[in-house]
Design the sequence.
């Protein structure tokens, strides 16, 4: 703990600082709680997206088997028919933190010969695109968690600083200055009484 001046001005300064710390602390604690709640909500959304994606992949199993047996795909890969163009993101704000928000995923138009490909390829491409969309959503939500977690760490550090360092330090400084000033007042009273006694004797 840094040494403080044992003066009335310093005492006032420490009391003002303590008042300020006590005013800001509840705001920081509230922000910390909001961030924790928001992170849990985003994590729940990720889990939901992963479950939906897993169900989609499971529904692909029948035509994946057909795909493996089809001689046409010995030299060609159905994945080549699904090419991402770009991920569109907007900006949002959660608990004062700017975050990316998933808007859309666009794909390049890859033409293929309808006479050479089986009918189920259309459904396969559609489902693979949907699977890719889930990947983009999950990635964006994870970016949100990373940003919110970083802000939560900073806010938690500030809360700890106020609770464990600044507030106790200010209280101790006020106590220390109060004791010193009290001792000084007592000494002044004692010195005054002694001086009065001497003055009284001198007049006798």
Sequence:
């Amino acid at each position: 703990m840094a040494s403080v001046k044992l003066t009335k001005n310093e005492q006032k300064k420490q009391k003002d600082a303590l008042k300020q710390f006590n005013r800001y602390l509840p705001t920081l604690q509230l922000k910390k709680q909001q961030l924790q709640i928001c992170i849990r909500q985003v994590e729940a959304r990720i889990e939901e997206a992963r479950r939906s994606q897993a169900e989609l992949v499971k529904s692909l199993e029948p035509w994946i088997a057909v795909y493996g047996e089809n001689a046409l795909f010995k030299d060609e890969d159905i994945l080549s028919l699904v090419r991402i163009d770009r991920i569109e993101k907007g900006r949002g704000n959660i608990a004062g933190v700017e975050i990316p928000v998933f808007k859309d995923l666009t794909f390049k138009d890859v033409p293929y010969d309808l006479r050479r490909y089986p009918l189920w390829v259309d459904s396969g491409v559609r489902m693979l695109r949907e699977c890719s969309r889930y990947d983009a959503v999950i990635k964006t939500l994870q970016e949100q968690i990373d940003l919110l977690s970083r802000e939560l760490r900073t806010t938690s550090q500030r809360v700890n600083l106020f609770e464990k360092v600044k507030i106790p330090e200010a209280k101790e400084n006020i106590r220390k200055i109060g004791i010193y000033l009290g001792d000084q007042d007592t000494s002044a009273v004692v010195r005054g009484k002694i001086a009065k006694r001497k003055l009284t004797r001198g007049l006798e």
Observations:
- The chain has a mean pLDDT of 85.
- The longest helix spans residues 120-203.
- Residues 70 and 118 are 9 Å apart (CA to CA).
- The chain has one domain: 8-199.
